[in-house]
Amino acid sequence: MKKLFVLISLCFFLTGCVNVSAPDAVKEYLEKIRNHDQSIVSSLEEKNEKEEFTETQAKLYNLIMKRQYVNLEYKIVHETYNGTTANIEVEIEVYDYHHSQKKALEYIQKHQSDFLEEDGGIDQNKYKNLKLEYMNKEKNRILYTISFDCFFNEDSWEMKEPKTVALEKIQGIYDYS
């Protein structure tokens, strides 16, 4: 009997794919972020394309976000269960990149002439460079609470795709103003 228990425990430990509780599913997701799982790296690449970053800007943005993810701190603060669904509240602490972006915008407003193109518009590359510079130097951290929805699927808990607001909070770019 003891050997069977050890064998089952070993199989569970080695596979690591069964989440025995809803918080386990959330922790697994957050650890993927902290460890730069391939799915996270892919989402950064999508963001780079959407933002139309230059190659240099994309590299810096990736470094900034990887710093954010590695330094992500979190703790489960509340669990609510309703049959096969659960809501897990997590407090996270991240770098306040929204603060950085706000500072960059304020700087541009005060020094508009330095960022104007010939047609009178703002040079978006200069603006992106400034935002990334401020983000790269950001020291302020901010605390957010995020709710993650989970569901029980056959033999384990799975987390639903996080909402956009949750992702913005994890990245530190959530507009809290």
Task: Give an account of the 3D structure.
The protein is α+β, with helices and mostly antiparallel strands and 177 residues long. It has one domain (22-171). The chain is 53% helix and 21% strand. It has helices at residues 2-15, 22-34, 38-51, 55-70, 97-110, 124-137, 164-171; strands spanning 73-82, 85-95, 141-153, 156-159. Strands 1-2-3-4 form a 4-stranded antiparallel β-sheet. It starts with a helix and ends in a 6-residue tail after the last helix. Residues 1-16 have low confidence and may be disordered.
- The SSE order reads HHHHEEHHEEH
Number of strands: 4
* Mean pLDDT reading: 88
The stretches of 5 or more residues where confidence is low (pLDDT under 50) are 1-16
**Estimated share of beta-strand residues:** 15-25%
Give the count of helical stretches.
7
Reported for the largest beta sheet, the result is: 4 strands, antiparallel
Query: How many domains comprise the coordinates?
Result: 1
End-to-end Cα distance, whole Å, is 59 Å
Helix content: 40-55%
Overall geometric form: elongated
What structural class results from the helix and strand content? alpha+beta
- The gyration radius over C-alpha positions equals 21 Å
Trace the largest sheet across and list its strands. 1-2-3-4
Task: Name some characteristics of this structure.
single chain, 177 residues, alpha+beta, four-stranded antiparallel β-sheet, 7 helices, disordered N terminus
